[in-house]
Write a structure and sequence with these properties.
alpha+beta, two-stranded antiparallel sheet, 7 helices
């Protein structure tokens, strides 16, 4: 885990600092495909060093033939700057954050998460919550690593995502870098937000693939990376999920 965060620190330095999603737009230069790592304000590492902890890992284009680009997916999470709202039916990130806000603040949005589409009147009734979701997600800082591979479930991006989540969750082991008492994820409607088994992956860490984007010396260092849980995946926060 310490090595993982050391690699992300190198990545952050290489890209000139993390970004806040609210400050990003399609006019910026984005790779076609990649994996992203979100940090949440107020959530810090406690066992593996200092600094913010990763609360969500995600990617896109995990279905064969998908043409979804990195920024397309990030913009779905960000929402619509013109209204401040968004579409939680098109972003599991937004869906889970909104559901946690409902439980935490005892809100009544009975249509939240119902169906893949909704009529205009329903969406208008959800706008206040969509705006709050946009505010919460938009205030998060994130990093991304470009991985320009083909779409599909066996992509290198999917491998990085699965194994990074397994590492961060410390699955079936004592918790590392536990969340704060005020962490939004405590209010998720998904048990442990959420632990479940996924397709078996190789035991070698996916961070080997992240290293492709860094310096050659970093690549060499990563070849001895630590073993990782190989048969599971975990939502490490309510701000995380397969895309």
């Amino acid at each position: 885990m310490v090595r993982f965060y050391s690699i992300l620190e190198t990545l952050e330095h290489t890209m000139g600092g993390a970004r806040k999603l609210a400050n990003c737009s399609g006019r910026m230069e984005w790779p076609r495909r990649g994996v992203y790592f979100f940090r949440e304000c107020g959530e810090y590492r406690s066992d593996t060093g200092e600094g913010p902890r990763i609360v969500r890992v995600g990617t896109h284009a995990l279905k064969a033939g998908s043409d979804t680009r990195l920024w397309t997916r990030l913009s779905q999470h960000r929402g619509q700057p013109s209204t401040g709202g968004g579409n939680h039916r098109g972003s599991i990130f937004r869906l889970i954050v909104g559901a946690a806000l409902i439980r935490r603040d005892e809100l009544e949005f009975l249509t939240w998460g119902n169906g893949n589409t909704a009529e205009r009147t329903v969406r208008d009734g959800e706008l206040a919550l969509e705006r709050e979701v946009s505010r919460v997600i938009g205030d998060m800082s994130f990093l991304w690593v470009p991985i320009e591979d083909d779409a599909g479930p066996e992509s290198r991006r999917g491998y990085v995502e699965r194994n990074a989540i397994a590492l961060l969750s410390n699955y079936n082991k004592p918790s590392l870098d536990p969340p704060s008492q005020d962490w939004l994820g405590h209010h998720s409607d998904r048990e442990q937000v959420r632990t479940y088994c996924s397709n078996t992956t190789e035991s070698r860490t996916a961070i080997l693939l992240v290293s492709i984007q860094l310096t050659s010396s970093m690549r060499t260092r990563l070849m001895d990376a630590w073993p990782m849980n190989s048969d599971c995946r975990m939502y490490t926060s309510c701000l995380q999920g397969g895309d």
